[in-house]
Recover the amino acids of this structure.
């Protein structure tokens, strides 16, 4: 009998981390796309790093950063009441490290592709940056942002290494689909592994289809309705 | 009143020549045209005033407000500059209706005030019935009007327009010119308009600022600039004249005449004050003041032989372009009287020869 808990946990972790990635990533993408500041390329590199580093390296960093003896870990424990590591919240943090860079990259590209005159017009009409962002930029790039979110969600769904390092592989608590599949294969439960693999593949294909449908931005420069 | 002194340098890149903008001018509450060829720095000037680009040095003032001062490190953000800017592509927000576009510009005001302002402005620009439409459902002229209305609803202290007539057909152009004249009459703010179209510059511009390769070459009332280009550059830029160089061979103030050497031919013109015999001066001649005749025997006085290169039909007649870069314009009936030989003579009436 297949235990569906890992699937629900994965979906929940991916959803929460996508929302957090949006909150974190959109304004970073906006800064990178719109403002030139001194450490811009460094920030860009730092943002891209999680995409290229081995997951175990990231996991190690996070263990050091959020371990029970680290300052951040202590602050978290003091606020929330229990340590971060080896909880499902740690899996969210792990997924976040996959989702955010992807989101920032795509959102930055979308913002940079947006016809500059809309932003100029909004500023010229006296709009604050906040108003410009929410009333003009986000609506005009919403399809790209949705596509990016879908990709980030799919990516968050699939993390294995970082989750293993900081959330562990505790069945019924922190075991996500990717980990459950590994466990099932290890312990010879072939049909459990197959079921989970098929389910996760279907989910991924569905998400990518949705992402592709959104990826064509009707207000992008190519089809700008002038 | 706009005052602008702008300097900005772009160092040469791997695949671009360097460019330096260095202009200074004032613009009062009339229509001032920034005229010049493409790539001369007109739009850059406009963008500097609106705050979309930052000059290297200089000072930009609007009435008593300092918008930019390089030395004092003042650089106000675009949203505080109160310069309405009408974009070439109108930049109406495509996801909003016209009314929402206007309301966005009004900003935070009580609901009723906002509604009244928007309604008045839409009515004024004959857009009253179109408030619920999206920009892509409008014609070019309607978008143009909406774009101007959206700028004016913020009560700007100046209105900047970047090639507003580009892409409009002649009827819509006429309509736009009408709108801009009304704006000039009703708002009494400086209107700064970028164009490379001389007809537009003349039709709309009370004042004209001629820019070429980043430098200001002449400014003044539009009529004066056309009648009296300050130098060869401007005369050429206007594209209205035949411009060529002659050497002064003789000057006779008593008979108000001069003898000028053009290539291998002598031309008799009016007396030229302020020059000496032997000086080389630039002459400008309007193409419609010249007379072209098929070549027939010996040359008369002030006649120069020329080979016909092109005949171009114009709304007002025909333009004959000769191999020696002289152009002559005449009416269609006058042209049709003649045979069409290759060799012609061009006659320069003495009063047509004006020194630049």
């Amino acid at each position: 009998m297949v235990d569906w808990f890992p699937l629900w946990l994965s979906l929940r972790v991916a959803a929460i981390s996508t929302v957090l990635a949006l909150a974190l990533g959109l304004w970073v993408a906006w800064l990178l796309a719109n403002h030139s500041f001194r450490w811009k390329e460094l920030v860009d590199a730092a943002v891209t790093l999680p995409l290229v580093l081995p997951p175990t390296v990231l996991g190690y960093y996070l263990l050091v950063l959020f371990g029970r003896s680290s300052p951040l870990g202590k602050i978290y424990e003091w606020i929330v009441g229990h340590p971060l590591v080896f909880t499902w919240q740690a899996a969210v943090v792990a997924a976040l490290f996959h989702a955010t860079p992807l989101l920032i990259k795509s959102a930055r590209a979308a913002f940079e592709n947006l016809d500059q005159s809309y932003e100029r017009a909004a500023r010229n009409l006296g709009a604050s940056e906040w108003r410009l962002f929410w009333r003009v930029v986000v609506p005009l790039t919403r399809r790209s942002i949705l596509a990016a979110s879908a990709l980030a969600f799919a990516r968050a769904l699939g993390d294995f290494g970082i989750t293993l390092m900081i959330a562990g592989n505790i069945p019924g608590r922190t075991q996500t689909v990717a980990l459950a599949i590994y466990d099932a294969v290890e312990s010879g439960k072939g049909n459990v592994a197959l079921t989970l693999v098929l389910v996760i593949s279907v989910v991924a294909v569905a998400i990518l289809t949705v992402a592709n449908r959104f990826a064509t931005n009707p207000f992008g420069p190519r089809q700008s309705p002038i | 009143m706009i005052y602008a002194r702008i300097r900005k340098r772009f160092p040469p890149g791997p695949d671009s020549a360097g460019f330096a903008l260095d202009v200074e001018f004032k613009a009062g509450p009339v229509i001032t045209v920034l005229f010049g060829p493409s790539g001369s720095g007109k739009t850059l000037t406009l963008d500097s005033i609106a705050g979309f680009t930052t000059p290297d040095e200089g000072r930009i003032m609007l009435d008593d407000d300092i918008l930019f001062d390089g030395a004092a490190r003042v650089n106000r953000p675009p949203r505080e500059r109160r310069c309405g800017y009408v974009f070439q592509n109108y930049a109406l927000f495509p996801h909003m209706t016209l009314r929402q576009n206007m309301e966005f510009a009004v900003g935070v005001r009580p609901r009723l005030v906002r509604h009244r302002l928007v309604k008045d402005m839409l009515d004024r620009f004959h857009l009253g019935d179109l408030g619920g439409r999206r920009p892509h459902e409008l014609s070019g002229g309607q978008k143009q009007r909406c774009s101007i209305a959206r700028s004016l609803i913020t009560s700007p202290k100046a209105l900047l327009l970047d090639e507003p007539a580009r892409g409009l057909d002649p009827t819509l152009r006429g309509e736009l010119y009408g709108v801009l004249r009304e704006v000039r009459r009703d708002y009494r703010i400086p209107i700064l308009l970028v164009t490379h179209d001389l007809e537009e510059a003349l039709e709309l511009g009370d004042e004209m600022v001629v820019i070429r390769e980043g430098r200001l070459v002449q400014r003044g009332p539009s009529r004066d600039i056309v009648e009296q280009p300050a130098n060869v550059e401007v005369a050429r830029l206007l594209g209205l004249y035949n411009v060529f160089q002659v050497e002064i061979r003789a000057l006779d103030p008593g008979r108000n005449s001069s003898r000028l050497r053009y290539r291998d031919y002598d031309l008799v013109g009016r007396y030229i004050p302020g020059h000496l015999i032997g000086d080389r001066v630039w002459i400008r001649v309007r193409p419609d003041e010249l007379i072209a005749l098929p070549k027939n025997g010996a040359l008369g006085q002030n006649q120069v032989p020329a080979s016909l290169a092109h005949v171009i039909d114009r709304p007002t007649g025909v333009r004959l372009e000769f191999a020696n870069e002289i152009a002559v314009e005449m009416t269609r009936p006058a042209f049709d009287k003649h045979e069409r030989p290759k060799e012609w003579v061009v006659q320069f009436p003495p009063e047509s020869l004006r020194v630049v």
